[in-house]
UniProtKB/TrEMBL annotation:
This is Small metal-binding protein. It comes from the Archaea.
């Protein structure tokens, strides 16, 4: 999971060693402190299985 701010350079990611829960908590704290909008991406992208 990768969460990032749409207004500044803030970001947090599970690839940095955080759990999904910690990434979400950090994103909420960033929003509360700054009022900035935070968006997210899933890492890695889902695997598509074709028959």
């Amino acid at each position: 999971m990768y969460k990032y701010c749409l207004h500044c350079d803030w970001h947090a990611s599970t690839s940095d060693g955080y759990t999904e829960r910690e990434v979400s908590k950090e994103a909420i704290e960033h929003f509360v402190e700054t009022g900035h909008t935070v968006d997210s991406l899933r890492l890695p992208p889902p695997v598509v299985v074709e028959n």
